[in-house]
Structures are given as structure tokens and as C-alpha cells.
Amino acid sequence: MDERLISLLSMAATLTLVAVVFFFISLLLPKPEGKTENLRNFHCAHPPSLINKEFKCEAFYPLISSLITQPLVLFFIYAIMAFGVDDLPYQMFNHYIADVPIVVQVLLGLLVIDISIWIRHGFVHKYLWSFHAVHHSAEEISWMTTTRLHPLDQFVMSVMDFVVLYVIGFSAEGMTLALLIKNWNNMFVHSNIVLDYPKPWKYIFVSPNMHRWHHAKEKEAHDKNFCVVFAFVDYIMGTYYVPDNALPKAYGSDIPELDDIAHKTILSELWLPFKTMGRTTQIDDGAQAKAQIAGE
Predict the structure, then answer these.
(1) Residue 124: which residues within 8 A CB-CB, separation 6 or more?
(2) Which domain holds residue 59?
(3) Are the beta carbons of 121 and 145 closer than 8 angstroms?
(4) Is residue 239 classed as helix, strand or coil in its secondary structure?
(5) Taking a C-beta distance cutoff of 8 angstroms, is the pair 228, 189 a contact?
(6) Is residue 296's pLDDT more than 70?
(7) How far does CA 244 lie from the centroid of its chain?
């Protein structure tokens, strides 16, 4: 077997093992009581549980993605490839990147992917908020929240990722490994672990605390922290918000029916975005959503 492939598989297996270890740690860490809750690193933000109150909705999204969204994305991408990409440049820098060390390829791949995430994440926050709000409606953030994406939201973001990676990406082992690292880190920053990196690292890498502020109800945090790997991309673009020694007081979308985990079902969660399509951004006043729903 090719040595580069063996190296790639070994790194992937190591990352998978680390992710599994962190998952089980997140189920064992106690949640401290009192005021220390927002000050101490490496504890659970919510009481650890394999099945939390979000499970009744979140458990369905991997199945919806596998059976519906991903096949539609692949079909649409195939149509684009067949009929609409003649004028698009293809992996413009692949010629320069293919022979550089694998570590450099991975870092460049992660940067390209994170820039793509910043672009499409900001897009859905501004123009498809009612659908992306499904992801933000989780009251308890956990690794399962990673897959909590409305099919239309996931479809749009996947197609935008494809276009960016088609134009800027590169077909090398480094990009494959970079995608794997991004996926695992995305699950990690959504995990039930409270962890803020010390300076200057908190300005370089996305921590679980940084992404918790992305899901916060506090208006200061709305439309912030779009990336999932490199915090400096958000910092440069002016979308970085991570207060020191603090966690959000609450999480949610500020769309009342979507945030009502006690009464909604997976079917109502999939349908509600179509009722609130007029609301385009998280910054909109919550009263607007209430008035819109009441007028239905």
C-alpha cells in the first residue's frame, strides 16, 4: 500500500479515536453548581446525558440527511457538473499545492474550508435565517446538534461549499484529511464541554466556548463566530465575539415556536421555517416572529 495512503489512514484513525474519547469524557464530566459555572474550563455545560431533551428531534436529522438531503445535493452537483461549470475555474492552485508536505496541504485545506464556511454560514444567517434557525433552536448544545440542519439549509450550504472547493480547493490527500478534521472539530465545538483556550490561542482556533456564543440568545453574539476551525478568520472579518470567563445565559433562535422543545415534534420543526420565511436574520426583533406566527 502507498505510504502516503497509510499515513493518511493512520492520522484519520488517530483523530477518530481522540474524538471518541472526548465524546465519552463529555458524558462523565460533572456540571458545577453556582457561580463557578461560567468561570471554570472543562466541565459540562448541561447535565451529561446520552439522550437529552433535544434527542426527540435531533435523532432524526442524520437519517433525513442520508436519505433525502445528501442524495439531492449529489444530484444537483451532478447537474452542475454536466451543464453549468464550463466557465468556472477548476482548483486553481492544485498545481502548486500537490507536491508540498502533507501537513501544509492539511493546513491550507482547513483554511479554504473555513473560508467557505464563513461565506455560506453568513449567507444563511442573512437570507435563510428561518431555516437555519432550526440548528439554533437547540436549548442544550451537544455533539448531536452538529447534524441538526433543516434539509433546505443543508442543501444550500452544501452547494455553496462545493462551488468554493471546486474553484479554490485541490485534489490531494491533504484536502481529504482537512475535511475529516473539520468534521470532527465541528462536532467537538458543538459538544457539551465548556472549554475556552488561553490567549493567544483563543484568537487562532475555534473553541467550544466560542461556538457556544454563536448559539447564544444575547443580541451582542448574534451573527458572530461563523467559522468552526480558525478563529482568526472571524476576527479579521469582524465577526468574532468571545467574552472572557463567561458563557451565554441561554441558547435558542428567538423564534418562539421553534424554541418550544416541549411541544414541537420533528415534523413541526421541519414545517415551521416555511411559516416564518419573512424573518431573514437573527437580529430581527423576536416580537416580529411572534406577530408573524400569530397572523397565520
Answers:
(1) 131, 132, 153, 156, 157
(2) 3-33+41-294
(3) no
(4) coil
(5) yes
(6) no
(7) 22
Sign of CA dihedral 262, 264, 266, 270: negative
- Identify whether the C-beta of residue 46 lies closer than 8 Å to the C-beta of residue 52: yes
Whole-number Å distance between alpha carbons of 224 and 235: 10
Residues 6 or more apart whose CB falls under 8 angstroms from that of 106 comprise 174, 177, 178, 181
Name residue, grid cell 469524557.
25
Helix then strand then coil, % of the chain, to nearest 5: 60, 5, 35
Strand ranges, E, within 144-186: none
* Mean pLDDT value across residues 74-95: 82
Q: Pick from 107, 136, 119: which is nearest to 205 by CA? A: 107
Q: 104 CB contacts (<8 Å, ≥6 apart)? A: 174
Q: pTM for the full model? A: 0.82
Based on the structure, what is the number of domains in the chain? 1
| In the predicted structure, residue 14 carries a pLDDT above the cut 70 | no
Cβ contact 97:170 at 8 Å: yes
The grid coordinates of residue 264 equal: 414541537
User: What is the C-alpha to C-alpha distance for residues 138 and 121, in angstroms, rounded to an integer?
Assistant: 17
Q: How far apart are alpha carbons 141 and 54 in whole angstroms?
A: 9
pLDDT, tens only, 139-176: 999 999 999 999 999 999 999 998 888 888 887 788 88
Query: In DSSP terms, which residues pair with 251 in a beta bridge?
Result: 216
Omega before 200 cis (within 30°)?
Answer: yes
Q: Which residue in 17, 9, 3, 2 sits closest to 177, CA to CA?
A: 9
Distances in Å between the alpha carbon of 267 and those of 7, 44, 60, 270?
44, 30, 10, 5
Element (H, E) at 238: none
